[in-house]
Amino acid sequence: MEKRKNKRVDMITDVELSRLDEEGNTADRYVNANIFNISRGGIGFETMYPLEIGSYYDTRITLWSREVVSAVLEIIHGEELERGYRYGGEFIGISDSDALKIDIYQVFNDI
């Protein structure tokens, strides 16, 4: 049974993640990762770096149109791979305009 509220679309692109602390401040360094799918509700991605389940990240996703989506992401689940890690994250803070960019990407992908 599909638990997701939003349709996932395959996407191969990069994302920059910067960990947020308890006060909402970001770390000085970004972790690079590769997205393999996206929806209005979150992303699936792979990285070479271990991340903590339940942690929060400020994200910057560059779409095919070169537009950037910024959102706060909570790491929901993860697994260790032979080389690196695979994670799923849920957007807990995304503007309506950035969510609309993802919706538009899905429309173009469906064509």
Strand order in the sheet with the most strands: 1-2-3-6-5-4
Instruction: Give the domain tally.
Output: 1
What kind of sheet is the major sheet? 6 strands, antiparallel, barrel
How many strand units?
Answer: 6
CATH level-4 homologous superfamily = predicted glycosyltransferase like domains
Shape: globular
Helix count equals: 1
In round numbers, the mean pLDDT is 86
| C-alpha Rg (nearest Å) | 13 Å
CATH architectural category: Beta Barrel
The CATH C-level name is: Mainly Beta
Helical percent range?
A: 10-25%
Residue windows where pLDDT falls under 50 for at least 5 positions: none
* Percentage of residues in DSSP E strands: over 45%
CATH topology: Thrombin, subunit H
Give helix and strand order, one letter per element, not per position: EEEEEEH
What structural class do helix, strand and pairing data support?
mainly beta
Report the span from N to C terminus: 26 Å
